[in-house]
Amino acid sequence: MADVMTTAVVSVPPHAPVPEVASRLFVAAVRAVPVVGDEGALLGVISEADLMAAIAESEPVERRWWRPRHVHRGVPVARPGARTAAELMSVVLVTIDPDATVAAAARLMREQGVNWLPVVADARLVGVLGRSDLLAVFLRSDAAIRTEIVEGVLVGALATDPSRVAVDVVDGVVTLAGQLDTRIDAEVAVALTSRTEGVVDVVDRLTWQVPDRPDTIPARSLLF
């Protein structure tokens, strides 16, 4: 996922005045900005909805021309009188690790009802991930996916002769056919292939030469 996230993140410090936060949102044409402290520590996030809630709450009730009809789950809590980013931000954050897969990020977005995720490593903000970033993954060509599997999985991770496995990719569906040394090798090949960005599904037609014994399981099986 580190390959698809946005690393040039528009952020604000906790002492930034609310008008500056609004300006950052407008100029950068983004819907939310992270609030970042010393050494890149992620403190919170401010969305357009947070700003709108604060503005609406500042207007006297008797002067409002609108009336809320429903109370929706997840509506931002209004913070009247907020003057800085620290006072306005939401601190309950949904974040994700840069080593997570795109599929995991998509599942988290769906489960939490968000369309934007801060990417955090060691409590530091290292990027942001939006729905458009996830969709871009599936624009990879079949040829690019196949090359990464051959070079990254077969040659790189398994250190095996790539001619032993036929790798066929059609519309993101990968078929692996051939014979590897052990069952563990075959399982590793399938698992790493499924984690390759752009892969929709894996059809496993691999076989192996010898059965695995506990004392012969290769070290690379520790990936699991």
Please describe what this structure looks like.
This protein is of the alpha+beta class and 224 residues long. It folds into two domains: 18-137, CBS-domain; 142-223, Histidine-containing Protein, Chain: A. Helices cover 32% and strands 22% of the residues. The strands form three sheets. Strands 5-6-7 form a three-stranded mixed sheet, with helices on one face. It has a two-stranded antiparallel ribbon with strand order 1-2.
What are the SSEs and their pairings?
Layout: H1 18-28, E1 32-36, E2 42-47, H2 48-58, H3 85-88, H4 102-112, E3 116-121, E4 124-130, H5 131-137, H6 142-157, E5 165-170, E6 173-182, H7 183-194, E7 201-210
Parallel strand pairs: 6-7
Antiparallel strand pairs: 1-2, 3-4, 5-6
How many domains make up the 3D coordinates? 2
CATH C-level name of the largest domain: Alpha Beta
Taking the sheet with the most strands, its summary is: 3 strands, mixed
Which blocks of ≥5 consecutive residues have pLDDT under 50? 63-76
Number of separate helices: 7
CATH architecture of the largest domain: Roll
Overall pLDDT confidence: 81
Order of helices and strands: HEEHHHEEHHEEHE
CATH fold naming of the largest domain = CBS-domain
Strand content range: 15-25%
Secondary-structure-derived class = alpha+beta
CA-based shape? elongated
Q: What gap, in angstroms, lies between the N and C termini?
A: 19 Å
What would you give as the CATH superfamily of the largest domain? CBS-domain
- Strands of the widest sheet, in order across it, are 5-6-7
Count of extended strands: 7
- Please compute the radius of gyration using only Cα atoms: 24 Å
Q: How much helical structure, as a percent, in the residues?
A: 25-40%
